[in-house]
Specification:
Elements lengths: L2 E5 L6 E7 L9 H12 L7 H4 L4 E5 L1 E2 L2 E2 L4 E6 L7 H4 L11 H8 L10 H8 L5 H7 L4 H16 L4 E9 L2 E2 L10 H10 L7 H16 L6 E8 L15 H10 L4 E6 L10 H4 L3 E3 L10 E3 L7 E2 L2 E2 L4 E7 L10 E3 L6 E3 L10 H24 L4 H13 L3
Antiparallel strand pairs: 1-2, 2-6, 3-6, 4-5, 7-8, 7-9, 9-15, 10-15, 11-12, 13-14, 16-17
Helix pairs in contact: 1-7, 1-12, 5-6, 7-12, 10-12
Length: 400
């Protein structure tokens, strides 16, 4: 139902996103959009780029007087840093013979791929020896456009009282124990995570995470970690089992794995289930006549499945985790090979973060919202919001 496309280079003039398939009549709150964009830029361990950009989103099509028209929505995010890269990134002009020292370094070090980055594999795939042609689009800067798309999709879901949260559960070797927090109050998780520099809901663990990032920065290194995304208020029945591509769990994990630096993702207790007995894993079922109509009044006292069974939502909280590696741009460059001379070299160094994990949860919310909005419209969808509302009310009122 929903398709989208993003374009733009990290240091080009702008990022652009086009969303098609949104229903007409959906209210769009620009402040909500701005808030989500600002969340992505925050977090202890982020680099200097976040001090340059403001990531303001301009809506240039598909919305009039605050509501969607049913036509494609186009979003633009200007790159303020573009003015510093005009000579290097101009679409048509060749590099001038005379460049400032900074520009010379940026323009001429891009034959030395960074281990762990798309530089070398992308260069070979597209036959580029100037690896800036690869790194500009492989950059995580692209996720700003996806957060913008996710914010629009999220506003559709929030219209139906579906709510989102995320927080950081691990940075480096510092872990937050599952027993240290509760998922029963998602508003509290939002409150605590937004107040934390690393989006951790337990202050003592937050302090240890910050110290780990500080130590990595001091040694000119980087850290990865794990972020958890929680969605509550989903109705039972989103997704399907008829074909593999219909299984919502595979779509969600795929969306999380599309985040730059992601190396693993899980739902519910995830990998932990592999070491447990079936009687310890599966969530027993109960029925209450006055229960939640979104769940058709069925009750699970546990939620180890993380809100999905058989590729379909159960109505319980959706619980997702994504693990990201330490980013591959290091201020203490690793050994590499120059792709032109084939001689040993040190990897190129770009302006970089030390730790992106606090932003990963926000990006995770966005890509999750995109997939859920698509499935929501697939089940309840129409060309306009009023008809979707009628379809949804009918679902809630129908007995199973």
């Amino acid at each position: 139902m929903i398709t989208y496309l993003t374009s733009g280079e990290s240091h080009g003039p702008q990022l652009t996103a086009i969303i098609d398939g949104l229903p007409a009549g959906l209210p769009i709150d620009p402040e909500h959009l701005a808030f989500q964009m600002a969340r992505r830029q925050k977090g202890y361990g982020r680099g200097g780029r976040m001090k340059i950009e403001t990531d303001a989103v301009e809506v240039v099509s598909g919305v009039r007087h605050g509501r969607t028209l049913g036509s494609p929505v186009t979003l633009i995010i200007k790159n303020r840093d573009w003015e510093n890269w005009v000579n290097i990134m101009d679409p048509f002009k060749k590099l001038p013979d005379e460049l400032h020292l900074r520009e010379q370094k940026l323009a001429h070090q891009t034959t030395r791929p960074r281990p762990g980055h798309a530089d070398l594999s992308g260069g070979i795939k597209y036959d580029h020896h100037d690896l800036r042609n690869v790194l500009e689009r492989a950059s995580a800067r692209e996720t700003a456009a996806r957060v913008a798309v996710g914010s629009i999709c999220r506003q559709l879901l929030e219209h139906f009282d579906i709510r989102f949260a995320s927080h950081v559960v691990q940075i480096g070797s510092v872990k937050l124990d599952r027993a240290a927090y509760s998922l029963d109050n998602i508003e509290r998780i939002v409150e605590l995570s937004e107040a934390s520099e690393v989006r951790c809901v337990v202050p003592d663990v937050e302090a240890k995470m910050i110290e780990a990032i500080r130590a990595a920065k001091k040694s000119r290194d980087s850290l990865g970690g794990i972020a958890e995304v929680i969605v509550v208020g989903l109705p039972v029945g989103l997704g399907g089992y008829s074909q593999g591509k219909h299984r919502l769990d595979s779509r969600l994990v795929g969306a999380l794995m599309s985040i730059p630096s992601a190396k693993a993702a899980e739902i519910g207790i995830g990998f932990e289930a592999a070491s447990m007995l079936g009687s310890e894993v599966h969530d027993e079922l109960f029925y209450h006549p006055d229960g939640d109509p979104k769940k058709k009044r069925f009750v699970r006292k546990t939620n180890r499945a993380g809100g999905i069974e058989g590729g379909i939502t159960t109505g319980e909280a959706l619980i997702l985790r994504v693990a990201v590696k330490p980013i591959s741009t290091l201020n203490r460059p690793l050994r590499t090979v120059d792709v032109v001379s084939k001689e040993p070299a040190e990897a190129m160094v770009e302006r970089t973060d030390n730790c992106v994990v606090p932003a990963v949860g926000v990006i995770g919310e966005a890509v999750t919202a995109i997939e859920l909005a698509d499935e929501f419209l697939s089940k309840f969808g129409s060309d306009n919001l009023a008809e979707i509302e009628r379809n949804y009310r009918s679902f809630l009122d129908t007995e199973y």
